[in-house]
Design brief:
Immunoglobulin-like, 7-stranded mixed β-sheet, two-stranded antiparallel sheet, 11 strands, about 0% helix
Length: about 160
């Protein structure tokens, strides 16, 4: 397939080119395709790759999101899931492209790739507590994770033998 379509966008990048804790990736990361004429019945397949390095060399996770267009529109979106995809790495990159398969049976077309750097690290190097399924590794008799919420310390888990 030849590349014929413009790249998808990460509308909540901040700063541009980055997805960080402020975007709450544990709720998923939105990817949007705008300014393309989609018609009812078109299928848009988002191919997502998460790499564990900023250069995009080491594969950590892959997934596809398939959207069937239900009405004529110029915008289609997909949310990259947390479980099994974004939770696969602490830092790295997210690469997305999409393929549009027209309802009229004409040939599918593919987009350019969009890439965003991805990090769950807070300033100072700690991993955001909200992004850890277990809120740190539990060790009997120890504090499992200390985090902050609204600038106040919060004990997320405490194990007592």
């Amino acid at each position: 397939m030849t590349i014929e379509l413009d790249f998808p966008e990460f509308p909540f990048e901040e700063p541009p080119g980055w997805i960080k804790c402020a975007q709450k990736p544990w709720n998923g990361v939105l990817v949007v395709v705008d300014h393309i004429r989609f018609t009812a019945g078109d299928t848009v397949t988002f191919d997502v790759t998460v790499r564990s390095d900023p250069d995009g060399q080491t594969l950590a996770a892959q997934t596809q999101g398939v959207v069937t267009v239900t009405a004529d529109t110029t915008s289609v979106s997909c949310t990259i899931p947390w479980d099994g995809v974004l939770d696969a790495v602490t830092e790295g990159s997210i690469i997305v492209f999409y393929t549009r398969t027209p309802a009229d049976g004409s040939a599918p077309s593919t987009s350019q790739e969009a890439i965003a750097q991805y990090s769950r690290r807070q300033p100072g190097g700690t991993v955001d507590a909200s992004t850890s399924r277990l809120f740190g590794h539990p060790h009997p008799g120890t504090l499992s994770f200390l985090a902050t919420e609204d600038g106040q310390p919060v004990i997320s888990a405490w194990n007592v033998p």
